[in-house]
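Person: Please comment on this record:
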Amino acid sequence: MDKIITETAAQFDYEVALQVARQVLKKPDSVLCLATGNTTEGIFNELVKLAQGLSIDFSRVRTVNLDEYVGVSPDDPTSCRYRIEQQLFEKLHIPKENVYVPSSTAENAQQVCEEFERHLQELGGIDLMVLSTGENGHIAFNEPGTPFGCQVHIAKITRSTVEAKAALFGGEDKVPQAGVSMGVRSIMMTRRILLVAKGEHKAPIMKKILCGPVTEAVPASVLQLHNNVTLIADRAAMARVDCD
């Protein structure tokens, strides 16, 4: 696993954005898979600056999102689709037909999972994924205990994630109970992964992810087995990591 450690959060945002920009310059029709959340908001801001400053054309890029909440409308400000469109897609002028974010109700969630899986196959795989991890080691909605062999599936939102998302949704009781998520196996089939981590609150889990055993109890630990992962983290997130 390659490692890029930055001294500040601002440097972290720029470094991740730079890696994505390089991918698009190298392959203008790249398939990108991007996480949404607090970790990636600054990254997206820097990527927009780079794209505009260097006139990078994103019109041929195709994107998929890792996950989406079940029962949340795409135009709801709490949805993954709404946030990434506002923060990134619209500013980079990526055509809507090139964007895939699963959208489901409780009634058709399983059908959406099957459609998502077919779409990944039709794209021919993902070239570059920006992947963040939760404080319990989850990746996408693959919470601790998720089998490593799972593909796109309906995932139950755990208590720790409900607490983490309560402010976004306006209360724990308003956080959705499930999500459509790319599975661990689906993630591991990506050609190159950028594992990104920022902030001292991520330090305890980064030690487990990077130094501990590969275990379903820490889903992100499986990335130790991927042959093309670049870790990009700020110094605060790496404060407890002592395995080289």
About this structure: Helices lie at 9-26, 38-54, 80-92, 109-123, 159-169, 184-188, 203-211. Residues 134 and 161 are 8 Å apart (CA to CA).
